[in-house]
């Protein structure tokens, strides 16, 4: 199964082979737990019931994630949250368990290739990353109707608002990873992390979620009678800024292939679309001025938007064709509006002010887009309280008998 099919199928019933997934919200990767023997390393160190609960909950996550026929995002998220409350105890310095157990994860793109790291903060980072990716998958599902064969795409206001909430939630998980988890990993462990968990990629995906949230807010503003042109321009310019930050985060690594290359192509495409909207609304506002320079600058904006619209369609095709192959949804929201309005306005205003363009050639300069303070922020996230079993005063750790110890040693030899 290809990466895109695997990623976008988590939480859904398995689709027929040959179905190309549709992408509105891009999910860079999906990493899932791989089998590891927690019980053997934790036996005799922490209470048996706590070791059993850690092992069983992790195994539950592993089984749900692998069996896409019956998996559900809600079920996975609940299991991950329960696991976190158990896991946080292993990260506590006072217990000294941070480097006790080896944890294994694998990327759905790589198939059987596993990452094994003996550090509980790595496990916590991986769990939060999975929660963020599942939230992005859920956001993508919100924007895609059950009947994907529809040529006209209409997304309700409620679905758009729910999607924005999910994007802010995903961004919050990723921001917490960068600010509060990576700092606990020593340099040698950071060097072993898979690319998906590098700081630049985490920051890029967090910014991408904010950018797409802002883009959807612009779509909501388009449908609102109370939203002014200034509000629409501001949202469009903010989306440009978020996508520019995302590209900046991704530019730190030139080794792009597979989903990493596809992620970069997606951001380049959406960045162009954001600039289309920004220049269009900036042009509309500038054109309200009375000076000839205002009209010339406005036409420059409309012509730039038209050229960017053409480039964005090429970028969309490049994204779709890059492996793993995906489909983009029919134009909806602000881009459906701009696909029609930008060419019409560029042609109309060029004809209307053609004489000014000829007379005022020195004014034919594309104006800079205004910069605004960014509105959307990642949703605040805090780790759950540690499970009450971690209260050491209640621990009752039974020593191993010689027979049990020898049995564990035999199991270890067979495993090796």
TrEMBL record:
Pfam families, A to Z: BRO1
Superkingdom classification of source: Eukaryota
SMART domains named in the record: BRO1 (SM01041)
BRO1 domain boundaries: 6-416
InterPro entries linked: BRO1_dom, BRO1_sf, BROX
Family from the record: Belongs to the BROX family.
Protein name: BRO1 domain-containing protein
């Amino acid at each position: 199964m290809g990466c895109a099919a695997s990623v976008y199928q988590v939480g859904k019933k398995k689709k027929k082979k040959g179905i190309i997934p549709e992408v509105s919200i891009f999910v860079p990767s999906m990493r899932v737990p791989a089998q590891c023997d927690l019980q053997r390393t934790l036996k005799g160190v922490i209470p048996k019931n706590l070791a059993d609960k850690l092992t069983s909950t992790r195994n539950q996550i592993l089984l749900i994630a692998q069996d896409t026929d019956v998996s559900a995002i809600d079920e996975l998220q609940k299991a991950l949250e329960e696991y976190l409350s158990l896991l946080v105890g292993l990260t506590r310095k006072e217990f000294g368990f941070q480097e006790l157990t080896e944890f294994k994860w694998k990327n759905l793109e790589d198939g059987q290739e596993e990452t094994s790291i003996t550090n509980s903060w790595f496990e916590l980072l991986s769990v939060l990353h999975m929660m963020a990716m599942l939230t992005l998958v859920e956001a993508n599902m919100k924007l895609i109707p059950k009947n994907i064969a529809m040529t006209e795409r209409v997304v309700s206001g409620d679905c758009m608002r729910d999607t924005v909430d999910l994007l802010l939630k995903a961004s919050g998980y990723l921001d917490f990873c960068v600010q509060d988890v990576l700092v606990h990993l020593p340099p040698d462990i950071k060097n072993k992390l898979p690319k998906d968990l590098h700081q630049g990629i985490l920051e890029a995906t967090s910014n991408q979620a904010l950018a797409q949230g802002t883009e959807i807010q612009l779509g909501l503003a388009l449908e609102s009678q109370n939203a002014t042109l200034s509000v629409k321009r501001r949202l469009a310019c903010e989306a440009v800024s978020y996508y520019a930050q995302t590209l900046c985060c991704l530019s730190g690594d030139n080794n792009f292939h597979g989903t990493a290359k596809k992620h970069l192509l997606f951001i380049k495409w959406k960045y162009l679309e954001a600039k289309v909207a920004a220049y269009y609304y900036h042009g509309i506002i500038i054109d309200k001025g009375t000076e000839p320079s205002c009209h010339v600058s406005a036409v420059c904006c409309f012509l730039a938007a038209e050229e960017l619209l053409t480039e964005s369609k090429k970028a969309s095709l490049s994204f779709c064709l890059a492996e793993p192959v995906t489909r983009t949804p029919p134009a909806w929201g602000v881009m459906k509006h701009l696909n029609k309005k930008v060419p019409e306005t560029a042609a109309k205003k060029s004809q209307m002010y053609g004489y000014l363009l000829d007379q005022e050639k020195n004014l034919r300069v594309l104006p800079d887009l205004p910069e605004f303070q960014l509105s959307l922020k990642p949703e605040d996230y805090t780790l759950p309280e540690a499970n009450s079993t971690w209260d050491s005063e209640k621990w009752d750790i039974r020593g191993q008998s010689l027979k049990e110890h020898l049995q564990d040693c035999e199991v270890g030899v067979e495993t090796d």
